[in-house]
Amino acid sequence: MDTNTLPSQPGPSQPGPSQPGPNPEPLVTLLAAGHVADAVERLNEEEPEAAAAALARLPPERAVEILDKPELLDPAGIVAALPVERAAPLLDAMSADRVADVFRELTEPPRALLLARLSEEMRQAVQRLLSYPAHTAGSIMTTEVLTVPDDWTVARTLQHIREVERTRETVYAIYAIDRRTRALRRAVPLRRLITADPAAPVLSAAREGEPVTVPPLMEQEEVARVIRRHDLLAVPVVDDARRILGIVTVDDVIDAIVEEGTEDAHRFGGMEAFDEPYSQLGFLDMIRKRAGWLCILFVGEMLTASAMQHFEDELEKAVVLTLFIPLIMSSGGNSGSQATSLLIRALALGEVKLRDWWRVALRELPTGLTLGGILAILGMTRVTAWQMIGLYDYGPHWPLVALTVGTALVGIVTFGSLAGSMLPFLLKRLGFDPASASAPFVATLVDVMGLIIYFTVAMAILSGTLL
User: Fold this and answer.
1) What is the arithmetic mean of pLDDT over 218-239?
2) Do 426 and 433 contact (CB within 8 A), yes or no?
3) Do residues 149 and 157 make contact, with C-beta atoms less than 8 angstroms apart?
4) 8 Å CB contact between 297 and 441
């Protein structure tokens, strides 16, 4: 295979660009030297076609090392821009889970062409990984697992590791399996294996008790909790017969959680989750991802106008009440957003379960009353100070105006805390992502109820005076 030139014209089996573009040699020189992380960062600055042209001129080992890094932002675009004859061997040399990630993003025709060119072993591994739902243990695991029969010695196991280490993504532990049933028996940490007696059975170096395992359909967030709880570097994924399907490593979990956290941050900000880095998102995609939520929130805010129209007579009689509407609405929205943020995180970490909703409500009720009381004191102090200093005249009934503001703040902040804490539970109960309880959505909900609470309190306190 000639790795120094790219075909100038793409044929039926060449999904790459027809023109090599600018001279890639300076970029090739840069990518060939130094740390692979620096090479990946530099390659992320290039368009897929330029990146592919540079990778095609690298030694295959170096190109595989770069493509295997999860920090590479658009591996599918780069692979699709390479000739199939060049891309297929590189994919064959990569880790199976990374290749599966690439194929999830590939479109036709490169996807079918490349899949057909993979080795039988890699093709089966990729198809198996692609069969699992996204964000599950099966979808993020690597199938390159180091297993040995449970009747081997430590010396024979160490020799086997030396022979196959280069074909395995990681060797955090060796898994001893039953020779007959292929079921997992024990996990042997590499450190304990190295320090064990070479003549002893491999099981003598294993940890006591059954190894920690996860099923292939377990959500990746739960896998992360298992790894953290048991302080593992990798956890085996097993089927119902306890046969090893693969392992989820700690770096796989970190990558998955970073991606999940990014999606949650987007949703919590009141927009659809982005599938691509911000710098690579097209203008139309940006509009599509953000416009839908903005329209929904705008329609919700229309209810605020309807609430104000309902109290139009009260506003005409006591115009002074309008001065505190922004204060009242923002306080309720802020308290609701705080509670929502806390509960979304607690649900994600497993600190609270759906069945704990009433405990959370009982906790948020006094919290909301206390926080509302603090803001009420500040609000009433502000009205009193402005009146006494002469910065603003709230009229002869200013003490009642101050009392109205204070009482409304207590009610609105309490409602915001309760609504903000219960909404994630409701969404999860209905099968939605709790992160969909975005801060703007909570603020919109609390705004409408805040106005109703504010004017209801005002009518009760100011009736017979200003109203």
Assistant:
1) 88
2) no
3) no
4) yes
Report the b/e string of 61-91 with b at 16+ CB within 10 A: ebbbbbbbebebbbbbbbbbbbbbebbbbbb
The alpha carbon of residue 246 and the mean position of all alpha carbons in its chain are separated, in whole angstroms, by 22
Q: Is 39 exposed, middle or buried (0-12, 13-18, 19+ CB in 10 A)?
A: buried
Give the rounded distance of the alpha carbon of 232 from its chain centre.
21
| Cis omega (within 30 of 0) for bond into 109 | yes
Which residues are CB-contacts of 112 (< 8 A; sequence separation ≥ 6)?
none
Q: What is the mean pLDDT of residues 443-455?
A: 85
* pTM (global) more than 0.85: no
Mean per-residue pLDDT over the chain, rounded: 82
pLDDT at site 271:
54
Given a cut of 80, whether residue 12 has pLDDT beyond it is no
pLDDT at 191: 87
pLDDT band at 382 (very low <50, low <70, confident <90, very high): very high
For residue range 310-327, list pLDDT tens digits in order: 777 776 777 888 888 888
Nearest partner of 134 among 433, 407, 339, judged by Cα: 433
Band of pLDDT at residue 370, cut at 50, 70 and 90: very high
- The residues pairing with 247 across neighbouring beta strands, listed in sequence order, are 142, 236
Nearest 10 degrees: Cα torsion 58, 60, 66, 72: 90
Q: Are 80 and 48 in contact (CB under 8 A)?
A: yes
CA dihedral 216, 218, 219, 222 (to 10 degrees): -130
DSSP 202-223: GGGGSPSSPPP-B-TTSBHHHH
CA dihedral over 123, 128, 132, 138, signed as positive or negative? negative
Q: What is the pLDDT of residues 78-123, one digit of tens each?
A: 999 888 888 999 998 888 888 888 898 888 888 888 888 898 988 8
Tokens of 284: 């139309």
Pairing status of strand 173-177 against strand 184-189: antiparallel
Q: For tokens 């603090």, what's the residue?
A: 374
Question: DSSP of 31-56, one letter per residue?
Answer: HHSS-HHHHHHHHTTS-HHHHHHHHT
Crossing angle for the helix pair 250-268 and 325-349, nearest 10 degrees?
160
Provide the pLDDT confidence category of residue 11 given band limits of 50, 70 and 90. Answer: very low
Q: What angle do CA 312, 314, 317 make, to 5 degrees?
A: 110
Torsion, Cα of 171, 174, 175, 178 (10° steps): 140
